[in-house]
Amino acid sequence: MAYTQDQHKRNCVTVNHSDGSAITVYEQGAHLTSWSVPTPTGLREVLYLSSTAVYKEGVALRGGVPLIFPQFGNRGPMSPSHGFARVRPWKIESIAEGEATFSLRATLQEMSPEGLVVSDSDRNAVQLYYTITFCKNKLRLGMRIVNMTSDAPLPFHFAFHSYFGVKEISNTIINGLNSTSYINNLTADPKTVVLNPPQEVRIISEEFDRIYKDQPSAIELVDATTSKRIVNIASTTLKDVVVWNPWIEKAKRFADMPDEDYHKFVCVEHGSILQNDVLLPNGEWKAEQEIEL
Q1: Is the pTM of this model over 0.85?
Q2: From 161, 220, 263, 288, the catalytic residue
Q3: Do residues 207 and 238 lie in contact, with contact meaning Cβ atoms separated by under 8 Å?
Q4: How many domains are there within the chain?
Q5: Could you tell me where the beta strands, DSSP code E, fall in 224-283?
């Protein structure tokens, strides 16, 4: 199966499952933009995607699951923010029912913006393999990164920047964070790690941007009006968790999102963020995020 152009003339692929669920992934960034699942009343879209997202080369889509690599935000010397993986074209490795794998090769020079000069050979590179498996009640995102070099350890950050759709953010309960220390990104210096003690979190009612360190349990989103679970988000390998919503004023500054859409989503991002992981020469690194309905 190959990529095809959508109405925005951007390459993407839709993968189906016999149970009626489906995903859509864009070539740029291997960006997962849709996970639709059958319900008694029709298809439900689990992920949030902005209706005014910018479909343009080099610009990450607002919503879905952007891949953050090799730098999180401005926590490092690299430009652009969040690294390059989310805006680079990825190759389709394989497609099967309920599963798709994509790959990206990055050179050592790209991984080292300080000016490292190396030859552009297969051995001076990192290879990323991204496998998405899904059905109507579960989505698994798996990343494998291989250091092709024989002598260069590579530090990096990584995160699944997942946007989850909700009916109303002010009626969305967030379970699982009350015992975890965190950094408040609204006040913290990105070059430092200053932890705040655990604080009860139930419903977001203002701009919210925190990194929870060593999160021990899954995060559950619950609709307060029905007491029904929206999603359960977990990872056994990624211990930092970002929870983010821009709220009113910041949402107005986003050209690629309607002003009122802060009501419609919350980001819950598992990652390796607060300290660099180091990929040893000839080594590999694996991580996953699992979402259940």
Answers
A1: yes
A2: 161
A3: no
A4: 1
A5: 228-234, 240-245, 265-279
